[in-house]
């Protein structure tokens, strides 16, 4: 069973960058899709980005062109590079894995192994 731990969050100013990490333990995640989601106060958890088990990447429209997802299977770690951050990116960011097919790859209910999350706060 894959267990994930996120890190790298923090307090930054608008326009700054952060790189989040997602480290796996218990099992390799090389055979899974790896997704990043976020949840802002009072809002539902939402899809941010995913890298499939075949290394295809997909992004939510609000982050397209600013965020980059990647994975290093040798280190059993995935990353979310976040550039040109905006105050509306403020949220707790989570990573998780799935075996979902492409049509469900953005569906958080298809994911498991959720970490505890890492807080990202972007001030204006």
Q: How much of the polypeptide forms β-strand, as a percent range?
A: over 45%
Secondary-structure element string: EEEEEEEEEE
Q: In one word, what is the shape?
A: globular
The end-to-end span amounts to 40 Å
Fraction of residues in helix: under 10%
For the biggest sheet, the summary is: 6 strands, mixed
Mean pLDDT: 94
Figure out the total of helices.
Answer: 0
* Rg, Å, rounded: 13 Å
Which strand order do you get reading across the main beta sheet? 2-10-9-4-5-6
Q: Which parts are unreliable, with pLDDT below 50 for 5 consecutive residues or more?
A: none
Q: Number of DSSP strands?
A: 10
The secondary-structure class comes to mainly beta
Written overview of the protein:
With 124 residues, this protein is mainly beta. It is built from no helices and ten strands. The chain has strands spanning 3-7, 10-13, 18-25, 33-39, 46-51, 57-59, 67-72, 77-82, 91-98, 118-123. A six-stranded mixed β-sheet has the order 2-10-9-4-5-6, with no helix packed on it. The radius of gyration is 13 Å and the shape is globular. 32% of the residues are buried.
């Amino acid at each position: 069973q894959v267990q994930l731990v996120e890190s790298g969050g923090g307090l930054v100013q608008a326009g700054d960058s952060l790189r989040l990490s997602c480290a796996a333990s218990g099992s390799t995640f090389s055979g899974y899709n790896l997704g990043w989601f976020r949840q802002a106060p009072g809002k539902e958890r939402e899809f941010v980005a995913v890298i499939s088990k075949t290394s295809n990447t997909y992004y939510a429209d609000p982050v397209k062109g600013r965020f980059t997802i990647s994975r290093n299977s040798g280190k059993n770690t995935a990353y979310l590079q976040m550039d040109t951050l905006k105050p509306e990116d403020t949220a707790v960011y989570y990573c998780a894995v799935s075996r979902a097919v492409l049509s469900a790859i953005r569906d958080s209910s298809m994911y498991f192994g959720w970490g505890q999350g890492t807080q990202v706060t972007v001030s204006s």
